[in-house]
Amino acid sequence: MNILHTEASRGWGGQEIRILEEARGLIHRGHQISLVCPAEARIFAEAPAYGVPTHPLPIDHKNLNGFFALRHWLKMNPVDVVNTHSSTDSWLAALASVSMADPPPIIRTRHLSTPVHTNSPTFWLYQRACQHVVVTGTALKEQLIRVNGFDPATLSSVPTGIDLERFQPRERLATRAELGLRADISYIGIVATLRDWKGHTVLFDALHRLDGEFASSRLLVVGDGPYRDRLDTKLAAFDLANRVDFVGHRYDPERWLAAMDLFVLPSWGDEGVSQALMQAMATGLPVITTTVGSLTEVVKNGETGLLIPPRNTEALAEAIACLLRDPSLAARLGAAAREFASRHCGREQMLDRMETIFSRFARHRGR
After folding, report:
1. Which residue of 159, 219, 277, 308 is most buried, as measured by CB atoms within 10 A?
2. In this model, does residue 64 exceed pLDDT 90?
3. What is the pLDDT of residues 189-223, one digit of tens each?
4. How far is residue 21's CA from residue 27's CA, in Å, rounded to a whole number?
5. CB of 131 closer than 8 Å to CB of 107
């Protein structure tokens, strides 16, 4: 198949990584994949490393310039199916499609749990202009059915899959030595873009509460993003600067995960099934996360990890202390997390399901 991905966002996070990983995987399966996005977008700079052909288009705003640019590209480059990913490029693709004599079908992938507008234009976009909608977790699908009244037959849940060969248990102390980390203390870790709703400030508050018995424990913050300055301010308020290591965006998160004693993702909104959470589980880490979005589809409380209410710093501090005090519990949860991820979170499962959806709706030109 000849598949076009569109992405209007200039940001960088799990959504953009999923697009590139999925595209790379389907290229390896013999499909022709292209991506159009703004030249200023981070995904445009990152795509060559994934081997994904990418073309710059001014589609980061809902305006005539973006509409005509995308419409012209589609007319000059016929494809079997278009997969849109953000609101702006979905609208531009939908309007371009209705203005064309022979438009390609549109699959809309929705990556986050942010509520969808219940107005008639949005209903048209999701239920008429798009041939199918993919979400990244069952809870997101149920939300669209319950709140928006979307036809269940038009929706599929396809969680992001991860590379299980890349993310697996490693020897912790050897990995710490490679990274220049200490061998004699506990490292709590988070891998996430520095956005407000990822819950970094909640984690800082919990760490502040863990002073005393766990005063020697440190926090590894892997990732970068627009909230770095605000997080520095929060650290200063809690007097935690000497217990938190910001290591920035890393192209080798598998090594940083392997160096941690436990993983925490205290998100309070906009989550599908977090890639970083699944990566930590595949690494064999005990994990703590919240009951938002579709996170509960991979973390079962007391079985594959610990679940806490969102924005509850006291519960988070207690959960962290519980795992640090009880290494046998941490080991049991980590082993169960690894087993679950190995069975349910692999990249090939994601590729199989997306390939099936694309094949179902694609217009195979000349075949």
Report:
1. 277
2. yes
3. 999 999 889 999 999 999 999 988 898 899 999 99
4. 10
5. yes
* pTM, full prediction: 0.86
* Number of neighbours of residue 261 by Cβ within 10 angstroms: 21
Q: Which residue has the tokens 């919990």?
A: 206
Residue 107, helix vs strand vs coil: strand
CA 130 – CA 92 distance, rounded (Å): 12
Tell me which residue of 293, 323, 291 sits closest to 307, measured CA to CA. 291
Sign of CA pseudo-dihedral 220, 224, 227, 229: positive
Q: In sequence order, what are the residues at sequence separation of 6 or more whose Cβ sits closer than 8 angstroms to the Cβ of residue 26? A: 3, 33, 351, 354, 355
Surface-to-core class of residue 125, CB atoms within 10 Å of its CB (0-12 exposed, 13-18 middle, 19+ buried): buried
User: Tokens 């199989």 appear where?
Assistant: 352
Distance CA 18, CA 161 (A): 8
CA dihedral 75, 77, 83, 84 (to 10 degrees): -60
The pLDDT of residue 212 is 81
